[in-house]
TrEMBL record:
GO terms for molecular function: metal ion binding; metalloendopeptidase activity. Residues 68-155 form the Peptidase M16 N-terminal domain. SUPFAM superfamilies: LuxS/MPP-like metallohydrolase. The keyword Hydrolase applies. GO terms for biological process: peptide catabolic process; proteolysis involved in protein catabolic process. Keywords: Hydrolase, Metal-binding, Metalloprotease, Protease, Zinc. Belongs to the peptidase M16 family. This is Insulin-degrading enzyme. It comes from Trametes cubensis. GO terms for cellular component: cytosol; mitochondrion. Residues 388-694 form the Peptidase M16 middle/third domain. Residues 201-382 form the Peptidase M16 C-terminal domain. The lineage of its organism: Eukaryota, Fungi, Dikarya, Basidiomycota, Agaricomycotina. Residues 958-977, 1021-1053 are annotated as: Disordered. Residues 804-900 form the Coenzyme PQQ synthesis protein F-like C-terminal lobe domain.
Amino acid sequence: MAFSTWKHIPAAGDAPAFRVFEGHLEKPALDDRQYRLLELHNGLRAVLVHDQAADKAAASLTVTIGNMLDPGSEKYPSESDYHSFISANGGIRNAVTGPPSTEYWFSISPTALAGGLERLADLHCAPLFTESLTAREVNAVDSEFKRNWQNDVRRVLQVEKTLSIPGHPYSKFGTGNYESLTAAGRRLGQDVSEEAVLKETRRRLVEWWKNQYCASRMMLAVIGKESLDELTNLVIPLFSKIANRGLDPRPAFKNDAWGPEHMGTVVFVQTVKDYHAFSLTFQLPDLREHYATKPASFLAHFLGHEGPGSICAYLKKRGWLLDFSAGVSGSSRSVQFFEISGRLTLEGYLHYRDVIRAVYSYIALLRASFPLEAYHFDEVKTMAETRFRFKEKAQPHKYASALAHGLAEPYPPEWLLSGAYLYREYDEALVKGILEGFVPGRGRIVLEAKEHRAEVMGDDVVWETEKWYGTQYAVKRLDESFHQALGEPKKNEELHLPAPNPFIPKDLSVDKIDVNEASRHHISSSPVLTFESGYQPAKYPALIKRTEKSQLWYKKDVQFWVPKAYVKIDIKTPLAYATPRLAMLTRLFVDLVEDALAEVTYDADLAGLSYSVINQIEGLTVSVGGYNDKIHVLLRTVLDKLRGLQVHPDRLRVLKEKIQREYENFYMGQPSGLSECYATWAFMPTIWTPAEKLLELSLIKESDVSSLRDELLSRAFVEALVNGNMTRERAIEILDVAEQSLNYRPLVPSEIPRQRSLVLPPASNVISRKRHANPKEVNSSLSYYLQFGEVTDVKLRTTLAFIVHILREPCYAMLRTEEQLGYVVACSQWSINGTVGLGVKIQSTRAPWYTESRVDAFLEKMSERIAAMPADEFATQKEGLIVKTLERAKNLGEETVRFWGHIRSGYYDFVKRETDADAIRALTLAEVIRVYDTLVRPSTSAQTRKKLSVHLLSQQLHEEPPAPGPPTIVLSEADTGSNSSDTRMALFKSGLGCAPAATPVISAAFGEHAPAFDFYRPSASDASLVSPGRNHTALVPGAGTGPGPDTESGGAP
């Protein structure tokens, strides 16, 4: 924008000069934050955000160039100082790299923002680049590469990068490994030492930093409670020190990445996992200056549509397609492509030419439809405006990241917040111009499959090997007849442009009433907390209806003021997971429902509504959310389909194929994810593995699914939550709609499923060993779990939370950074169906028994550190944990997830965070040491610890495990075959006891229905809540899905 909108602020004392933007920022209607845009004298641009209500501060620094390690700094030379400071003060941090930029972000307690900013600035003012750190970071990059070596997404992307113009930045190896990073050093000579190689690597790294890192390439976003003047006074002196080397502030890839030889081709790629997929990609021109019209995104509205008449709908009807997407890939400053892609069935793969013909037929239809009817652009523009108008707050580190990236875009300052969202005008000529480039001679087809068929590939196939991942691929030119057919596609009568969207919301009014009046109005039906200043908004939902068939939780939003609502409905039935066959049938039923709804509900998705149907161990969960104007229409549509599903043989066949591949590929996943899953299963009394359910899949017919539908929904218990811009009466109507649509009878109370956790006895030392299914996977994994006890023990669970809080960063620093055990190293708190514990996971090329020994050594070493912890550090760590614990939901969706987690857990402990914060404040170091020595420290807890570890072994690991000690139980598949460990684990589990099922924590939330739960009545604010070990049988329906109330549980395994 014009220079006149910027005001020059001269230097004053030690503060350098800077410029401040004086124009008006376009903001969402609900955004009550204050903003200030600055340009420092060194060219760095910053946006400062004053948020008086912030319970977390955050900052993000985006550099418009590639990656740099966290090098330590002159003022803070310790490599872990930055990370430790953030963690101790209740924060999180990360660095993320992409082709055009690198991002360094953190969130932290608002009182510690200044310290975080000082450390972030110093990392870029005066980095150290020590030789030891450089060597470790090179190894860390190599570990990340090995982690992703069998990742098909990475492998296919690197093939596509290889098939571009040599020397173009896009053609480079995207992530790096030890070989690529040290290549220059190894060119010094064959006899050069490893130390010399790494010294040369460090020299080149420092040289690259001096040549590429520059203040004018940096964009900073800071969010805090401080005033804008205070934030300005923090930022200016700290970040003005960064050198400006006069470089291009927004370097971009300006040349095409493809030459003529790279277009008009078909690329066949062999995958690790067993699936079939296609993509059709076109290179886009530079569209950075067209942010007001967003022509490529507008085209994606048509080509990626999934409603009637779309490419997606047509291909699904033919039985060729599983999922579909279309849109822009790549950053605006990098190479951008328009990609149309999808997962195919085997039949779709065999008919890939027909799939591509359908895409080009739709492109031809779209070209022939210009000038487009006005409603197409109007709907896209309207929904973009609506989304921006009612844009809610997000997690502060995510928002800071988005703002910093926005500063790197060419938006005028006034549009920093809105530039990525709004369509301001329609440029049909530009849209048509881009579409004219979507022709066969300028496209590239990629076909992915584990095994490519000869009848698909044709003759004269020459296989090549990609350098870094070893991926096999072959390239062929489009044959002349196929090329001509695509260029002149026949008209397809089943394809047409989208009709007007009936789900576009018309009523966006918010039932906004005075907070004090709202609290008084809802005091009998919605719990509130009262302070001296008067009534406050309801903090959690109220149980407003309860019958033998259902119960309904409801909260009217008086905080976020958006025209949205969320509806969650649990349909509980013991049949859903009673046997492997019933579990498989339920999964198929859910997939068929979503498949049947796909065309109808896509318009709802475009109009800001969403839904899901998920199979759980306890039954089904139906979720609907978004703008409340049409939410009842979508819910009725989903429930009617659930009850009246017609099973079509062709769709059943397609979905059976999809599930079979999904379940088979499950065992080819990341080792760390698999070992975590196996460890979780070890504590669940009943679990049906993918392999066990697959035994039933081939035996299932259409009539089986129809029978399951009728029986599954004939008797149930329904528990629902309505949260948002909806009246109490409307919420009750929604429950009535659910009961009428499902038309079910009640369950006997003892039939209602309740999950429980198995309990290890004291002195347990259990090891479960399995082999990874992928013979080429080089990584093994360790999941190390220490079971503490029941979640109802407030003192125990908060002591655990504190222990995990103080272990998390040292675990990463010692085992990953210093010992270089692997890229994936993490310490976390586990929650499994009512029990809690401490978990450590490590994915490594080293043997799991070795990494377990290093975990034991780490835990032993940390006992000394904890025992010697100074009082001030202990207080700081406690306060940091309290900040995390009391962090508020930032939007209606987050709040709903929290409420639903408490409801599904069966505890209904809506003030658990406040209870825990009080318990943490009262926690003493002596209590922490006592629990640590009893349940964690290996040398002092042999008779009291309850440990289970899963060793997932790479098939390339040929090392023999050491002989176990006397108290160790080893459940290994290595002796008698791949299924023996499941048998041994089942026998082992059969000898364990169970923790009690979830027992409700009675509070004002239960209102008039509290007496029905009054067999035992702990207070929500009572630190003891439920006495440890006391077995209380729940008298009301509780899902019992574990004490993790702040995350929504996923579907059944």
